[in-house]
Design a protein that fits this description.
- The complex is a heterodimer.
- By secondary structure, chain A is mostly helical.
- Chain A contains ten helices and no strands.
- Chain B has a single domain, classed as Rossmann fold, CATH 3.40.50.300.
- In chain B, the strands form two sheets. Chain B has a six-stranded mixed β-sheet with strand order 6-7-8-3-9-10, sandwiched between helices. Chain B has a four-stranded antiparallel β-sheet with strand order 2-1-4-5, with helices on one face.
- In chain B, helix 3 runs parallel beside helix 5.
- The chains are: A mainly alpha, B alpha/beta.
- At the A-B interface, helix 6 of A face helix 2 and helix 3 of B.
Chain lengths: ~260, ~260
Amino acid sequence: MTADQNTARWGLGPIARAGQCLIFLIRMLASIRLTPAMISSTLQQTYLIGARSLVIIMICGFFVGMVLSLQSINALEQFGASDQVSLLVGKSLFRELGPVLTALLFAGRAGTSVTAEIGLMKATSQIDAMELMAIDPIKVVALPRFLAGLISVPLLTAMFNALAILGSVVFSVGVVGLDPGIFWSKLETGILFGKDFMGGFWKSLVFGGLVSLIAVFYGYTARPTGSGVGTATTNTVVLSSVLVLIFDFIMTSFFV
Amino acid sequence: MITIRNLVFRRGSKTILDGVSMDIPKGRMVAIMGPSGVGKTTILRLISGQLTPDSGSIEINGKDVNALSDSELRGLRRHVGVLLQNGALFTDLTVFENIATPVREHTNLSEALIRRLVWTKLRAVGLAGIEELMPHELSGGMARRVALARAVVLDPAVVLYDEPMTGLDPIAISTVRTLMRETNEALGLTSMIVTHNVAQMAKLVDYCYIIAEGKVAGEGAPNELMESTEPAVDQFMNGKVDGPIPFHYNAGKAATSAAH
């Protein structure tokens, strides 16, 4: 019986996989060099996977802001506190919904694309070709995509939050008729930079790293077949979503 | 140049290579031939250090491939060009960028010099002027020639070819074959070609090894092998159905199962 079979037999597969993923992360981080080629490649990937996710993030953010305001106003009206809607929406967005929903959308939009792209490169021997040319595919293929995800998710979260606040203004002020002065002053005085804004920022940074790591790792370790790439892509979405929610709870409980 | 001694390689319980020994002298073109699935590409992957043998040794220019550290192996690979079966061009890069990638990675040449070098290599394979095309715009033969240009762009000492003519039309086969020969002579390369195309290899290489059942079943110049009376060599070179090389995978086990 091989080591792999023994690992599977004792139900240690997920732990072994987590270990492989950690080693992969260390190899990626160890290959970081601030060369013009690396910077250029990372910026290009940031455009491809970050900027191209902008539209879906903005649309979702706007409607999340609207629906959050709708539900909040319905609940707050019962206590005569509907003018507190901007505070409730702001706190929910900056602390939780912004980072979490952006990360989930990013996993579906960009994470799958990264996994499929790297998996396909593997299936068509492009990764093999790099290794044979003494080019490290982890440095050239995986690292720029990982860094791009790390940079993109906090920026996309900021955009998501901004559009969600806009959606909230449109609904609360434009449709329900709340006073715009009260709306903005509650938001300005109630949202704390350190606790709410930065708390959300750190979450988005961790989620960006998590989703990007899973996407590049599953692409890189995909079986080089059609079904292998398909499975890896599905795993990226499922695992990213679950881990984002678990890490959100952990970070909220202990740090934020 | 390349020395292989008593190479043994297993996948699980199946022995793929069982004590294979070969010598590929400097400047020669040598073919490794044998039926599909016999382990020809495995030998190529063992030589390039992608796989590690269970036992035996592989030396390139006196350096034992399996004793090298990762960085030493990368250093060795800079002097070994590999043409993979499907060409393995980077699909999101232009022809120019495909050939320039190893140059950029391993040298500090100026952009003007890189452009000149890529043009020279493309001209050598008869494709000057297609620098800005994408791989999906190339025919199979053109893609293989671009991959050849990429494989020799750093002027390697050794080039390994994995089924270089599979899937090509007769004109493309003749073009690629001529290019391989000319490139080998012009650059003084040592070439190892993994293939099962008997007719083409007879026109191209200096020496052949026939692999069957995990061992070297025969070796010699192509014309010598064509007349060999060794049963496995005769069966493979002349495409005979009957002989010691089984058509069925795990033929022995299949026969036993059928008997029961």
